[in-house]
Amino acid sequence: MQLYTKTGDKGLTKLVGGQSVAKDAERVNAYGTIDELNSWIGYTVSKMSETDDLKEELLQLQHYLFDCGSDLSTPHGVYPYKVDKTLVEWIEERIDTYADIPPALETFILPGGDEVASMIHVARTIARRAERHIVATMWTTEINNEVLIFVNRLSDYFFALARVLNFRKKRSDIAYERGEKVFHNITKADVERWAKQAE
Fold first, then answer.
1. Which residues of 134-166 are buried (b: 16+ CB within 10 A; e: fewer)?
2. CA dihedral defined by 65, 69, 72, 77, rounded to 10 degrees?
3. How far apart, in whole angstroms, are the C-alpha atoms of residue 47 and residue 41?
4. 31 burial level (CB within 10 Å; 0-12, 13-18, 19+)
5. Using an 8 Å Cβ cutoff, are 155 and 124 in contact?
6. How do the domains of the chain map onto residue ranges?
7. Which of 12, 61, 169, 177 lies deepest, with the highest CB count within 10 Å?
8. Average pLDDT of 178-187?
9. What is the pTM of this model?
10. Across residues 80-99, what is the average pLDDT?
11. Which one is the CATH code of 7-198: 1.20.1200.10, 1.25.40.10, 3.40.50.150, 3.10.450.350?
């Protein structure tokens, strides 16, 4: 298979079935962001230990994301869609399982903690961006709505998973505090010292 087609030389790409669309179309942004998310998960998996039981689950998720991208790049009626409610049920079961493992939250938390947990938080934000592009697509184009539902659940899944990863590594969630609570103990001497260091 030839890797370059030259179609993109004019700012166009082809959907499944052969229809040409602009490369900056919302549909292309949607499945492109899903691809970005899939790549990030692959990178995250590469950072996990060989004995981590979550690697297989994330690999399965990568296959599901590939299905999502395929459906988003397929105009309605060209081929049967791949994503259905069973994928939504799968991810909801995972969310419910993980939500009960760490202690219940009493405040907002900041992304961070263990390296892999932090990377999963990045995945959460990419999933949110993908969802925004999918929603923008659906206002003007008929899409597989099950993909939207699945991607909507993804950010909750990643949030729950990141908390579990931190819990396993005995890393506490970082509680969000309002700015004045964080900085009200800063003295004038602190500010002068920081200014001198910056010189």
1. beebbeeeebbebbbbbbbbbbbbbbbbbbbbb
2. -100
3. 10
4. buried
5. yes
6. 7-198
7. 61
8. 58
9. 0.85
10. 96
11. 1.20.1200.10
